Amino acid sequence: MSLFIRYGLRPSTCVALEKSLFYPRSNVLSYLSFSTSAPSGAASHVQNITVYGSGLMGASIVQVGAQHGFKVTMVDLDQRYLQKGLDIINASLKRIGKKLFKDSNDQENLIESTFANITTSTDSSRAASKADLIIEAIVENIDTKRSLFANLDKDSPEHTIFVSNTSSLLIGEIAEATSRPEKFAGLHFFNPVPQMKLVEVVRTHKTSQETYDTLIEVTKKMSKTPVTCKDTPGFIVNRLLVPYLMEAIRIVERNEATPQDVDTAMKLGAGMPMGPFELSDFIGLDTLNSIVDGWRKEGKIDKNLVAPSKLLDDLVKTGLLGLQALEFSD
User: Fold this and answer.
1) Active site residue 112
2) Which of 37, 185, 294, 315 is 20 to 30 A from 326, comparing alpha carbons?
């Protein structure tokens, strides 16, 4: 309800009040805030990007980079995986083209111009040899990631920046496998990458200012909105989101409400576009469970926030990992 309706104030008065009350730039916020801007041209030396991993996230990052003028190499272990990645990109570009253009020629030009910037490779070492920026988007396993980066460290030029797209692992612990911690950071894209504007730029205490500035500019050139966070479990979004999803599951475990009512309550009462169960199904219950288990083992987050859930464990063990998981309440 607007201030005008609630208190009978004149519209001009309401505008002034709403600006001061709901869109403040207080001294406290000014003091606490820090800039995500970078010197103009910081990313000018980044022309060649190599992405390791051709799954949904990897392929989508490749697409966005290529769409915005970067030369991108997509790397995976087998040509079959690479072809699946190319198919993901092609299908995504067709959807985007239909939304942006009525003319079929314009739609085709979008696809052709993007693919003109994409190459593929199964040769990990060779793909790293000319990279200005390497983005890792492989399986969410710290030992696998560390092994990959240790090898890439030997094959990449000294100026190459390394980033991981991990959503839950600590960047600093991955970076320890290399000799370039000052050129190592996190770039956490969100699925679906072509549509989601946010990218979390994760700095470790060893990430250099030059590396950080470059990554801010790279994300902006990709038409993304970067936010900066320190190297802590879950960064910003998942640190807030995962405990919220887990508490929704516990509400159902305690028989306080049904999944459907929890989702309806959060959508209609809190303005969420998706309820927590709908979102959990979209993320994947196995993924959610893996994140919580990992955080609990690290011991760096309040144990009550990451306490195990029997309901979630049972669903994962039963193989109900996605949209079908809500069947338990039917």
Assistant:
1) no
2) 294
Determine whether 238 is an active site residue: yes
Judge whether 200 counts as a catalytic residue: yes
Give the pairing of strands 184-189 and 198-203: antiparallel
Strand order in the sheet with 48-52: 118-121, 71-75, 48-52, 133-136, 161-164, 184-189, 198-203, 225-230
User: pLDDT tens digit string along 81-94?
Assistant: 999 999 999 999 99
pLDDT score, position 328? 38
The active-site residue, picked from 167, 168, 280, 289, is 167
Phi and psi, residue 187, nearest 5°: -125, 100
Exactly one of 165, 188, 278, 309 is catalytic; name it: 188
Per annotation, catalytic residue among 156, 168, 200, 278:
200
Q: 133-145 b/e with 16+ CB inside 10 Å = b?
A: bbbbbbebebeeb
Residue 243 has pLDDT above 90, yes or no: yes
Handedness of CA 235, 205, 210, 125 (dihedral sign): negative
167 is catalytic: yes
